[in-house]
Specification:
The chain is 22% helix and 33% strand. It is of the alpha+beta class. The strands form 7 sheets. Strands 3, 16, 17, 18, 19, 20, 21 and 22 form an 8-stranded antiparallel beta sheet that branches. A hairpin with a 2-residue loop joins strand 25 and strand 26. The N and C termini lie far apart (117 Å).
Length: 376
């Protein structure tokens, strides 16, 4: 009985010890669970994310899109010129300026006017030699021949002659009246004429204004160098087919197939460029010995010979172009297709191409064409 009682007491003691140990074990288990959960959260946060769909695309990174550009196939050309004399316009008609229409860059034309002195307009005349005297009937000489040649060119008489007559005086008076001048029925007065070295010349500067008294020493206007003739020297042969024009100072002018320049506006633009040293608005003076206030000579201007209607070219990386063994043909690879192309220019890390088959549309090119491709 005594042993049984001791055994019961011992079991109670063990249960009390176990009950005291259970809370400590629960705390340990809870702490471990929290640590495991925290580790899972941190692992998710710092673990690498899966790549977006756009980065896992199967697109070929070697294929790049082409860029369409407007291409005028510009070629630098040298323009040779036969230059006349530039200088100042003066008058023998002293008096007060009553009207004055002078603008820098404007073109003064023979047979026109830009100034009135003492109420009468003076007529511009481009005679091959300056006139130096009043002319009456029966006068003769080289000045008469020069005057009548210009009157004939302007359509006031039938032809050139070296002898004056009343008919010539009447014809000149018709011209002078047309610009608002004051004719003299007995003679052609030198004071009614302003001499121009060429039929059309651009104004470099104006020298007076309305209300100012002028004399024979007054510069009424300063003119550009007259260009008697001009031609593009050695037209390039490696050009794209198509009608071409000449650009001077950023403006386009017609040009003959043999390079001769006959367009008067183009000649005026060349005259302005030749009147100033260095480059003038995109036209560069190469050389000239006739740019002073008198004399004449020859000179050269750099211009640009371009397609009148630009074409559409494609800008591609130079590495996308490959050639055949003889380097006679050039090609690009688009997807699994080969296209023959013509390289028309290369600049600023880009090559400009056009497909030889105009019906084939090039949208992308392979930056690293496959080896052993055949270009033919």
């Amino acid at each position: 009985m005594l042993k049984f009682t001791k055994k019961i007491a011992k079991n109670k003691l063990n249960r009390r010890k176990l009950n005291r140990a259970l809370p400590k074990a629960s705390v340990v288990i809870l702490v471990c669970a929290v640590l495991i959960a925290l580790g899972a959260v941190l692992g998710y946060i710092v673990s690498p994310k899966s790549a977006p769909d756009v980065l896992t695309s199967t697109a070929n990174p070697k294929e790049v899109p082409v860029t369409q550009v407007s291409f005028d196939d510009a070629k630098d050309v040298s323009i040779s010129m036969d230059l006349g004399a530039n200088g100042a316009i003066t008058t023998t008609n002293a008096g007060r300026v009553t009207d004055y229409n002078c603008t820098v860059g404007a073109v003064l034309k023979s047979g026109d006017t830009f100034i009135s002195i003492n109420g009468g307009y003076l007529v511009n005349l481009a005679t091959r030699i300056p006139l130096w005297r009043d002319l009456k009937a029966d006068d003769s000489g080289k000045d008469v021949a020069a005057l009548t040649a210009e009157l004939a060119r302007l359509g006031y008489i039938w032809g050139e002659t070296s002898s004056m007559s009343d008919v010539i005086i009447d014809s000149f008076n018709n011209l002078l009246s047309s610009v608002g001048g004051s004719p003299d029925n007995k003679m052609i007065k030198l004071s009614s004429i302003l001499w121009l070295p060429a039929n059309n010349q651009s104004v470099l500067s104006c020298g007076t204004q309305i209300g100012v008294n002028v004399t024979s020493s007054t510069q009424l206007a300063k003119l550009s160098v007259p260009v008697k003739s001009a031609k593009v020297s050695n037209l390039p042969s490696d050009v794209l087919p198509g009608e071409r024009v000449l650009k001077i100072n950023g403006k386009a002018y017609p040009i003959e197939k043999d390079g001769v320049i006959t367009n008067q506006d183009a000649l005026n633009a060349l005259g302005v460029a030749a009147s100033s040293p260095g480059s003038v608005g995109g036209a560069t003076l190469a050389s000239s010995d006739g740019g002073g206030d008198s004399g004449s000579g020859s000179g050269g201007i750099m211009g640009s010979w371009v397609l009148k209607t630009p074409i559409n070219a494609l800008a591609v990386p130079p590495g996308s172009i490959f050639s055949d063994a003889q380097a006679k043909n050039s090609c690009i690879q688009q997807d699994d297709k080969i296209a023959k192309i013509k390289v028309v220019s290369s600049q600023l890390g880009q090559s400009y191409i056009i497909p030889l088959d105009s019906s084939y549309v090039i949208q992308t090119v392979n930056m690293s064409p496959e080896q052993n491709l055949i270009c033919q």
